[in-house]
Amino acid sequence: MFSNFLTELTGDYKKLFESGFGYDVIIYAGEEPNIKEIHAHTNILCMRSQYFHSAFSNEWAEKKDGKFILRKPNISPHLFDIILRFIYYGNIELNNLQGPDVLKLLLAVDELNIQLLITHVQEFLINHQTEFLHQNPSGILETVYQHETFTELWDFFLDEICKEPTILFNSENFVTLKAPLLEILLKRDDLNIDEIEIWENLLRWCFTQQDIENDPKKWNKDDITKIERTLHKYVPLIRFYDIEPADFFYKVYRYKDVIPQDLISDLLEFHIVPNMKPQTNTAPARNLGLKLESTLIDSKHVSLFASWIDRKDSHYNKKNNPYYFKLLHSSNKDGFNTDTFHKNCDNKGATIWVAKIQGSTQLIGGYNPLDWEGNDWKKTEDSFIFNFTDIKNIHTAKLGYVNQKFYAVYCGNEYGPKMGYLNSYSSNNWTNNNNINRNNVYPNIGIPEKFMVENYEVFQIVKKQLNE
């Protein structure tokens, strides 16, 4: 017959710890004036912690009158009491501790090499105490980074910072962030902030490190040399090609003296010469949420489209864009056949399509808030078409919301995406009769009457969940 007396056994060990009967270890925990003398037993400590086993077996712990003496000024009496109660009878109560104290407890159990508690305390911090990260993000990141056993906590905090970089970048102590941590952050593809803000924060960090003013006109040669050396390893991590032309001119180009001249030359060419592509060795655009699969548009276009969908006066950015854009159809992969278009895009709800006009920098497209299934006109007041005269410059966009809601969208097997009298066929020869048709379904925004399409893509619009 098997009987379980575990509860009684743990109760006995609790009494042993609280009474200190037969103790042979004296621990002085904390610093003056809050030092506390705690009594314990070598056998129990050695069985539960490699740290204590090494201390007593190698006799590097002080010994006096037959008792081992340990002094731990870096661990408060309260936290040491929590640790010893776990060692003696498996009890651990963390709910009454604030985040900073839980982190101190984690540091203590790591020093004492109590593996079960290292895992447990990390899980508790992740599940219950993440808000304290806002108090000192750079200091907490540095602390966790320095401990190899805190892998779960490191991954979690780093992900939290990437989801909401303002936690770190807007904190007063960001400029004290250690260089290796900054490098790790800038390498992340999921850093959820506009690239120009990353660049500006990097400069702010750099100028503070070198104690130099943020004004190139006031720099001397020594200043320029110091800044170049500080920025050297970080410049390749900035996705300069994802920065808007105006921001590039006013916020990047003005610092041309501390940026490699070949990079400045390439960026000028990219922003000035039509159809110029980024250099092949550049890092890819940072992705947020679902990765945008497109050869035609990037996150800047997506944020603008989302603003148009919600008829926002001010534009969304990558951080507050409420939609994912999921690629349904690409003519580069799926061809221009309209049967394939309907197979991929019917019954998928709201979509946006974009098409690059062959032999030009022009990108056109439209938003269908309904779907593409059926064989008739569909009525809506929310559809629109658009035209970028320069595909890589969103400031060249022209937008036209529907004028005649009864002819907003046409669904038919012989057509691909058809908006009013903007017609797509089973070839790359398309037409636009909205400009001349008497119904004037959409306003004239400069889309040609006849044109050839180099490539077109269709995206399903997916609403993000509230916690994303």
From TrEMBL:
SUPFAM superfamilies: POZ domain. Residues 23-96 form the BTB domain. Gene3D superfamilies: 1.25.40.420, Potassium Channel Kv1.1, Chain A (3.30.710.10). Residues 295-462 form the TLDc domain. SMART domains: BTB. This is BTB domain-containing protein. It comes from the Eukaryota. It comes from Rhizophagus clarus. InterPro entries: BTB-POZ/Galectin-3-binding, BTB/POZ_dom, SKP1/BTB/POZ_sf, TLDc_dom. PROSITE patterns: BTB (PS50097), TLDC (PS51886).
